[in-house]
Amino acid sequence: MTAATLDAVLNSYVGNGGNGRRAAIVATIHQLAQAAVKVRNTINQGALGRAFAGSRGANPDGDVQKDLDVFADDIFLDAMRHAPVGLYASEELEQPVLLDKDADLAIAIDPLDGSSNIDTNVSIGTIFSLLPATGVPDENPAASFLQAGTNLLGAGFFIYGPQLALVLSLGSGTHVFVQSARLGTFVQAYESRIVPARAHEFAINAANYRHWDEAVRLYVDDCLKGTEGPRERDFNMRWIASLVADCYRILMRGGVFLYPGDTRRGYANGRLRLVYEANPIAYLIEQAGGAATDTVERILEIQPQSLHQRVPLVFGSAREVARIARYHNDPSSIGERSPLFGHRGLFRA
To answer: Global pTM?
Structure first.
């Protein structure tokens, strides 16, 4: 059977009725895909390109801003000027940009996730989410982006790796498309990915061990004890420091990702942005049968208080995410940690 193209899948999503909002979403995704190809072509030039790994200070939230961050932001902003999008909010911009006060879509975007990896040839990406425009956009453009993630109309990310891939959900599963140079379009590679419920890998930056709270340390300690420990199985540890790359791996083979808050200055609420990163990733993972929390609470139910709000993030295999929440809420309820049950607890995850 011939794999479906992105165009075919999106046409099916719109349906014969030509639903207005759905048609606008499809037109927006087409523009995003074209922009991603332009960004990928620039990335492929590597250090030979003009917009590569140079730095230019910090973005509005204090992170180091690379030349390629700004280049990607310009490419996607220009693409959205040709899409039925009313508002554009970017990690690289202090305030949203009003594009069309009458359009009913808003897009939140991290134009280049993982940009600290640009000059090390590690996969980086673009993360986006689509929201309904709300209120009076020309008077309060930020309002549309301060909605809980449960209001998302769709989300996705492009990953610039060995293949240019698009991970996309419009509310009916999470699908993966790969750009075909031969066909000049994106082709569906995986339909309705399901994150395996049982995890054998975890991703975390272990260098911050001394800064974590006790619950995170206990969880990682139990994983590292392997077959001799309370989990009675071996785990592999992964950490790419590229959110899209870690997420793609989990979608392909399961596992769990942790970026908790810690005791370092400025890290109490983690470092990932709720609007630009955590919400779209959580949406994609949930649509694939996984779960995403701030270690305890469901990410998509958090009401953003500010445009660039940071949040701890745990996502991946649903049972593992739930277990991490139990480590935070009540570790004594985890059977195999209880002296009463020893290694073989009654409540094994």
So the answer is: 0.92
